[in-house]
Design brief:
There is one protein chain. The protein has 187 residues and is mainly alpha-helical. The chain has a single domain, classed as Up-down Bundle (AhpD-like), CATH 1.20.1290. It has helices spanning 14-22, 28-33, 37-52, 58-72, 75-87, 92-99, 110-125, 130-137, 142-164, 175-186. Helix 4 runs antiparallel to helix 5 (75-87), helix 4 (58-72) packs parallel to helix 7 (110-125) and helix 7 packs across helix 9. It is elongated and about 50 Å long.
Length: 187
């Protein structure tokens, strides 16, 4: 049971009401975010941009999200993003390797290993040793590196929100979340 009540979309006000009513499926993380009425709209917008408007590839994004969830103990984020990772083509062997903390697994290519090593350093230590930065920069553009850092930070925040409030884990929305964001981009 969550430590704070989930906001009922029908009872929400202001931006929180507009955000929750605009969602095809207001999953619990958004209902928890709605307590911060003036922040929920920009936070959801940033999350949508991370999921749909980056140069960084969808597979790489999902590897990052799962690794952050694994490192931070973000059970809610893992539950939601495991099926999304499968939906964008991440092999189960890679998901299992991340679950086991094995970023050097043969399931990953050199670029993915560099990405995950970089992500681990950003998540656990903030500062990144030169060798790890150079390795990731050999595979990812300047823009992608900044997007990687934003993705890590966003999902660290999400994990902290859901874990500190003990947000109830609901069934995964899966690719419906991605599809709804893509639909919003067309309109």
């Amino acid at each position: 049971m969550a430590r704070l009540p989930l906001i009922d979309p029908a009872q929400a006000t202001g931006d929180a009401k507009r955000v929750l009513e605009s969602m095809p499926n207001a999953i619990n993380i958004f209902r928890m975010m709605a307590h911060a009425e003036t922040l929920v709209k920009p936070v959801v917008k940033l999350g949508g941009a991370i999921l749909s408007k980056q140069e960084l590839g969808a597979k790489e994004r999902e590897l990052l999200i799962l690794q952050v969830a694994q490192l931070e103990g973000g059970a809610y984020e893992w539950n939601q993003h495991d099926p999304i990772a499968i939906g964008v083509g991440v092999p189960r062997a890679q998901i299992d390797a991340i679950a086991n903390g094995d970023i050097n697994s043969d399931a990953f290519n050199t670029a993915e290993q560099a990405l995950l090593a970089f992500s681990r350093e950003v998540t656990e230590n903030v500062r990144v040793p030169d060798a790890i930065f150079k390795a990731v920069h050999a595979h990812f553009s300047d823009r992608e590196i900044v997007e990687i850092i934003f993705t890590i930070g966003f999902y660290m925040m999400a994990a902290r929100l859901t874990e500190a409030t003990e947000t109830d884990i609901d069934p995964p929305a899966g690719m419906k979340v991605i599809d709804s964001i893509q639909d919003d981009k067309r309109s």
